[in-house]
């Protein structure tokens, strides 16, 4: 790695990701590591210029007060206590904190502002070539931002050693499988294999209501599909994934409880027969987009709305049924059409519909109905760690409601989710 690095050691603070992002915004690379990292492990990391101990007001993890080893305090790089311990409390004001970080990173540590996408891409190309050699890689290509950027990086690094596999698991948005094939096979000339696995996935998910179990089933089944495709192709040793930093942080570390398992972090089977290639795993979402732009991907791909790996499976709440899944798909298509017509598709970071597994009484054609509600969600965020709710004009909400209740079978109510992250998460499951 060519970039200087500032380490953040997690002592229980909820601001770890925020501080890491603020340091990266200064042009210096930063990573979060657990509090019990050893001095030998620190020294094994490249170009560490300073360490920040970040524990909030209490330095408590799972009810236990924690600290780093004494060796860390006595190491040969500067150490900053970024919490409320000691004589100099960490500033709560964002501007003041930015000045304190800048002074520590540049004035105390002497770090260079050499964190940029060109250097990141050069590093990753070198690391990918070193890891893969002359062997072949299989990539799960959903067509979303993360997998698309991974594909571009791998094409730059290893060219035709990459095979892309697009799996239609029945949990994609309306028209999405056809669009993925058209863009990647026809326009980008990628070596793309299309797999229709709709029945296979939905059969595995039948009757499964617990969200984490659904995610793990979807993740494990993805790997099984890839193993089968790899056996057909022969000579595939690596599986590439679009894992990004929020996936890892939210799936839990030694010092932080999991928010939720991500299918590409917590759902991988223990007997995985591939070595993983995850070149984006230390990037936040906006950095992934910047990487895609630097690689020359079109804006329509780089700024495409994010879509979870488990797809509509985490938006069809509870046990997935085919009719309710179609209600999610159809209502989502209406929401996207109306947001595009209103000019919100380029403004709102993520917007989607959710259909829960309960019904309510309603009236249609002067008759009683007992149908599902559709929940609308529209949020804005920079890094997917926090999110605010979009203030959608009420007339537009009324129009969307009228279309969904008229056009989507089995639906009689439309609700709008006003909850930011935190306390909610972006997705419902």
TrEMBL record:
One term of GO molecular function: ATP binding
GO CC terms in record: cytosol
Binding-site list for ATP: 142-148
Enzyme Commission no: 6.3.5.2
UniProt entry keywords in alphabetical sequence: ATP-binding, Glutamine amidotransferase, GMP biosynthesis, Ligase, Nucleotide-binding, Purine biosynthesis
Pathway: Purine metabolism; GMP biosynthesis; GMP from XMP (L-Gln route): step 1/1
Signal sequence extent: none
Highest taxon in the source lineage: Bacteria
Claim: ATP-binding is one of the keywords in the record: yes
Domain GMPS ATP-PPase residue range list: 115-304
Function description: Catalyzes the synthesis of GMP from XMP.
Protein name, entry field: GMP synthase (glutamine-hydrolyzing)
């Amino acid at each position: 790695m060519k970039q200087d690095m500032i380490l953040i050691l997690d002592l229980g603070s909820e601001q770890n990701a925020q501080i890491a992002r603020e340091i990266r915004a200064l042009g210096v690379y930063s990573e979060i590591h657990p509090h019990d990292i050893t001095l030998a492990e620190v020294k094994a990391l490249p170009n560490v210029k300073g360490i920040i101990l970040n524990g909030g007001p209490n330095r408590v993890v799972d009810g236990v007060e924690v600290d780093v080893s004494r060796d860390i305090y006595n190491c040969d790089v500067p150490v900053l206590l970024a919490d409320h311990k000691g004589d100099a409390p960490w500033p709560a004001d964002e501007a003041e904190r930015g000045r304190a970080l800048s002074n520590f990173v540049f004035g105390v540590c002497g770090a260079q502002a050499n964190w940029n996408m060109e250097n990141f891409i050069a590093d990753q190309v070198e690391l990918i070539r070193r890891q893969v050699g002359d062997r072949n890689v299989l990539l799960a290509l959903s067509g979303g931002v993360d997998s698309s950027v991974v594909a571009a990086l791998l094409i730059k690094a290893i060219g035709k050693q990459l095979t892309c596999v697009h799996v239609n698991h029945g949990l994609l948005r309306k028209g999405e499988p056809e669009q993925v094939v058209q863009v990647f096979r026809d326009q980008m000339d990628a070596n793309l294999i299309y797999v229709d696995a709709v029945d296979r996935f939905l059969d595995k998910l039948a009757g499964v209501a617990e969200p984490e179990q659904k995610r793990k089933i979807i993740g494990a089944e993805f790997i099984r599909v890839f193993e089968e495709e790899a056996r057909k192709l022969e000579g595939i040793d690596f599986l590439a994934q679009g894992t990004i930093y929020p996936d890892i942080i939210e799936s839990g570390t030694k010092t932080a409880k999991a928010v939720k398992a991500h299918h590409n972090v917590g759902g991988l089977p223990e007997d995985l027969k591939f070595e993983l290639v995850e070149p984006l795993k230390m990037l936040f979402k906006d950095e992934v987009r910047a990487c895609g732009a630097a690689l020359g991907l079109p804006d329509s791909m780089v700024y495409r709305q994010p879509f979870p790996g488990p797809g509509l499976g985490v938006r069809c709440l509870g046990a997935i049924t085919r009719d309710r899944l179609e209600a999610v798909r159809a209502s989502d298509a209406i929401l996207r059409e109306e947001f595009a017509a209103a000019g919100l598709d380029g403004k709102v970071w993520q917007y989607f519909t959710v259909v829960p597994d309960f019904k309510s009484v309603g009236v249609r054609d002067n008759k009683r109905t007992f149908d599902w509600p559709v929940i609308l969600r529209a949020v804005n965020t920079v890094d997917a760690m926090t999110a605010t709710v979009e203030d959608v004009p009420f007339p537009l909400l009324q129009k969307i409601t009228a279309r969904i209740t008229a056009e989507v079978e089995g639906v009689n109510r439309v609700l709008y989710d006003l909850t930011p992250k935190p306390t909610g998460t972006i997705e419902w499951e």
